Amino acid sequence: MDLTERKLKILQAVIADFIKTAEPIGSRTISKNYSLGSPATIRNEMSDLEEMGYLTHPHTSSGRVPSEKAYRLYVNELMKKRELSQEEKDAIANELYQNVNELDSLIERAAHVLSEITSLTAFALSPGKEQDKLRYINLLPVDDYSVVLMLVSDSGKVSNTVVRLKAPASEDTLRILAKNMTYNYSGKTLSEALTMDIIQNLKADAEAMSMFENSIAPSFIKTLEDMLNVNLYMDGLTNIFALPEYNDIQKARSFFEMINRKADITQKLISRGDGIEITIGRENQDAELSDCSVITATYHVDGRLVGKLGVIGPTRMKYDEVTSVVEYLTDNISKAFMLTEGDDDDR
Amino acid sequence: MDLTERKLKILQAVIADFIKTAEPIGSRTISKNYSLGSPATIRNEMSDLEEMGYLTHPHTSSGRVPSEKAYRLYVNELMKKRELSQEEKDAIANELYQNVNELDSLIERAAHVLSEITSLTAFALSPGKEQDKLRYINLLPVDDYSVVLMLVSDSGKVSNTVVRLKAPASEDTLRILAKNMTYNYSGKTLSEALTMDIIQNLKADAEAMSMFENSIAPSFIKTLEDMLNVNLYMDGLTNIFALPEYNDIQKARSFFEMINRKADITQKLISRGDGIEITIGRENQDAELSDCSVITATYHVDGRLVGKLGVIGPTRMKYDEVTSVVEYLTDNISKAFMLTEGDDDDR
DNA sequence: GATTAGCACTCAAACGAGTAGAGTGCTAAC
DNA sequence: GTTAGCACTCTACTCGTTTGAGTGCTAATC
Q1: Across the strands, what pairs with A233?
Q2: Which residues of A touch B152 (CB under 8 A)?
Q3: Do A239 and A106 fall within a single domain?
Q4: Is A247 in Cβ contact with B237 (below 8 Å)?
Q5: Tens digit of each residue's pLDDT (9 = 90 or more) over B261-307
Q6: CB contact under 8 A, B238 and A257
Q7: Closest chain A residue to B258 measured between Cα atoms?
Q8: Is the per-residue pLDDT at A343 higher than 60?
Q9: Are residues B237 and B342 located together in one domain of the fold?
Q10: Do B189 and B55 have their domain in common?
């Protein structure tokens, strides 16, 4: 059987209406709102579309609901890109840049804006720092028994840990050790630094060495890992309560329990492809996501740092709108954080 | 009418059973499980207790439910402190100290443990830093146009911001400016620092002054505020789905929406009294909390830093258990972070 | 006088029959 | 190939009935 022009139009109409209303769509509705023929004709066509796997039937006497196959077709072929109007763009940019001056707050803000616009649950991943290089290592005394260990990377990311010392250290010792560590590590990527044999490389006096081995080394590793770690920001969690799909308390519960396992979510996001990726229903490996769709996009900062953002929602979502917004956001993040280059004045 | 011995016992029985089952308690149930007389006797007593305001009646032919007044009496007089067994204490300590080496992670961990044990929603507030004093200010170059502004406080808290400069700065200028800022601000509390007239106090060369005014000052204020700001950690949000009180999707929704307004929650927590504070139902000012109880406790670190933690749940909660756990946790936090004093080897 | 047994009464929740309405599938006419 | 017409299906809703837990009251008992 062929997907004739009219069949496509009817399918598109069903998808559009269902995305709006979340109710199964009957032949009469389509017939009234689109001039595609009488209810009976539409019924025949719908019946064909069902046979072809694009529509389903909750029960014999109800209207039609798009299948995952239909959404896939829609996303790949039928959907036309929804250009954002200048006002929309301005509104987004406005929201996005509200007192933001480090990358992570921008990312967090992006998740917020995204959830606001789409009325779905949004998330954003701060960039992976594998290729980022260490620049400085500093040790600053707090009191006799504690120092701040501070790492600064080329991309401007700063991480610090307060380290408790087993024995008090002189400022001199700290200075020497910090200098020595910087000498050894600066220019190395974070991942390299983690795999280096640390003790071997240090050449310092006995006191510094002992302090390093006993107190600093474990914190150093932890701080490196901390720098490498991506942060997951989520927003709009309660948006799902507005969706009829989640009227059932059990559904809402399992959604929240899934979304709360942040480590899992991060893992899943990282392993998604580059660019805009849309997965629909059971295309998501995960059983828990089998009636959700996920849309993610990748942003790049300065050609080196890479992160993701996106939304999760029911398979019935405004794919066109979400795609546009997600794309616009990633573009803007990339533009806002051109490192090293002299930056284009604010907004 | 008097609260006779038997009335008290019956009241206590109703409260205990209701906390367990969330179902209205009938006279037969009490009569069977406690030897306090026949159902008819219990009925008469319950009727009196209702007249006195300790019990209510969802409808004529249902069992009794404790009123807020009953919970208040229970908490103030009837409840006996539930001592934690050594195993319970060990289990808590074990969970609590899992790879924790800064105060904030300990606080976060505490919220986690608390929610796990109580099966309620737990929160913890990192300490307010008003009395904390600035120790260091540092400016570290990242590249020509950006520097890290870093503040270290007496309590070991470190905050940093990456500042974009309008014009490139020499390392010398940065060093001079940092030294000068440290000279002016070290020893001041964070709140004092915020109110000081910054520009007035600097005595540095023209280049440093201009950099300060144009680039550093706004970030400095922001970083100070960031240091002052308390963090709110929450855990066990999805626990409420297991409670019959939140079987209604609307209730669950408004709970989540309330709990998501983090700024509000922080505000409310901060304004609560010292020590263990229990507020029941409409004792909470907030209409949104009118069928919740909130239990908070205060921890002190080193006599200067003060923070809070606690749980929020339905008025029907295990007040005795929650109180004990919350108390044990705050004690442990205080002990774990005796700053300056040589620390007592772990656990 | 306090306690208890007994009984009529109340109400929510569960169940089931009946109905309305939306929608389909099929047939026959256009 | 399209459409009107009609029988049929199924859900959602309504309404009356039943069941069972529990009360309140009265009268008998301790």
Answers
A1: A124
A2: 140, 142, 148
A3: yes
A4: no
A5: 998 999 999 999 889 999 999 999 999 999 999 999 999 987 777 89
A6: yes
A7: A238
A8: no
A9: yes
A10: no
Q: How far is the CA of B61 from the C1' of C12 (A)?
A: 9
Averaged over A201-213, what is the pLDDT? 77
CA B139 to chain A, closest CA, distance in angstroms equals 12
In one-letter notation, the amino acid at residue A187 is: G
The domain boundary, picked from B228, B247, B277, lies at B228
User: Which region among A69-73, B71-75, B126-130 has the lowest average model confidence (pLDDT)?
Assistant: B126-130
CB A55 within 8 A of CB A66: yes
**Structural domain range at position A173:** 134-228
Residue numbers in B near A151 (CB within 8 A)? none
Count of domains for chain B: 3
Please, are residues B327 and B299 in contact by the beta-carbon 8 Å criterion?
no
- 8 Å CB contact of A161 and B343: no
Q: What is the spatial distance between Cα B254 and Cα B235, in angstroms, rounded to a whole number?
A: 17
Which chain B residue has the Cα nearest residue A105?
B161
Most confident option among A40-49, A158-167, A214-223, B129-138: A40-49
- Domain containing residue A37: CATH number: 1.10.10.10
Q: Which chain B residues contact residue A164 at CB under 8 A?
A: 101, 343
Closest residue by Cα to residue A7 from A68, A57, A78, A60: A78
Spacing of B26 CA from D23 C1' in Å: 9
Residue whose entry in the numeric block shows the structure tokens 């029960």: A59
% of chain A exceeding 90 in pLDDT = 59
Task: Encode pLDDT of B187-202 as tens digits.
Answer: 999 988 988 876 666 7
Q: How far apart are CA A34 and CA A13, in angstroms?
A: 8
Q: Which residue in B233, B142, B218 sits closest to A100, CA to CA?
A: B218
How many CB atoms within 10 Å of residue A94?
11
Q: What nucleotide is nearest A39 when CA is compared to C1'? A: D3
- Judged by CB atoms closer than 8 Å, whether chains meet at A101 and B161 is answered as yes
A–B interface: beta-carbon pairs under 8 A: 98
The residue written with tokens 């209701």 in the block is B18
Through-space separation of residue A41 CA and nucleotide C29 C1' in angstroms: 15
Query: In 3-state terms, what secondary structure has residue B223?
Result: helix
Residues B21 and B118 in one domain: no
**Chain B nearest CA to A323, separation (Å):** 26
Asked if the C-beta of A162 comes within 8 angstroms of chain B's C-beta atoms, the answer is yes
Name the pLDDT band for A201 (thresholds 50, 70, 90): low
Q: What is the distance in angstroms between the Cα of A129 and the nearest Cα belonging to chain B?
A: 16
CA–CA gap between residue A345 and residue B236 (Å, rounded): 43
Same structural domain, B169 and B203: yes
Shared domain check, B112 and B243 = yes
pLDDT (tens digit per residue) in B75-100:
999 999 899 999 999 999 998 887 66
Exposed e or buried b for every residue in B62-79, given b needs 16+ CB within 10 A? ebbbbbbebbbbbbeebb
Q: How far apart are CA A127 and CA B67, in angstroms?
A: 52
Q: Does A252 sit within 8 Å of B252, measured CB to CB?
A: yes
Mean pLDDT of all residues belonging to chain B: 89
> Could you tell me if B242 and B115 lie in one domain?
yes
How many whole angstroms separate alpha carbon A237 and alpha carbon A229?
23
Task: Give the lowest-confidence range in A114-123, A229-238, B185-194, B212-221.
Answer: B212-221
Q: What's the pLDDT at A341?
A: 40
A-interface mutation test, from B134, B152, B157, B338, most A Cβ less than 10 A away: B152
Residue B110 sits in the same domain as residue B250: yes
pTM of the predicted structure, to 2 decimals: 0.87
- CATH, residue A327: 3.30.450.40
